[in-house]
Design goal:
0% strand; 3 helices; 61 residues; 52% helix
């Protein structure tokens, strides 16, 4: 991310991990109407309970 020049409000480069992108995809997909049980399966979860908790918490933020 440093090479892209993308930075936060105080000029520090943004830092993301692969898990951040995985979580962003899951949250955006579910919040856009993608079925929770299918998103959970694509992410390798045995059930959708954890995915539901993640998507709800991000919706309230």
């Amino acid at each position: 991310m440093t090479r892209t020049g993308v930075s936060d409000a105080v000029g520090q480069p943004l830092r993301y991990t692969p898990h951040d992108f995985r979580r962003l995809w899951a949250t955006d997909s579910v919040n856009s109407g993608f079925p929770v049980h299918i998103a959970a399966k694509l992410l390798g979860h045995s059930n959708s309970t954890q995915l539901r908790i993640t998507s709800r918490s991000s919706m309230s933020s």
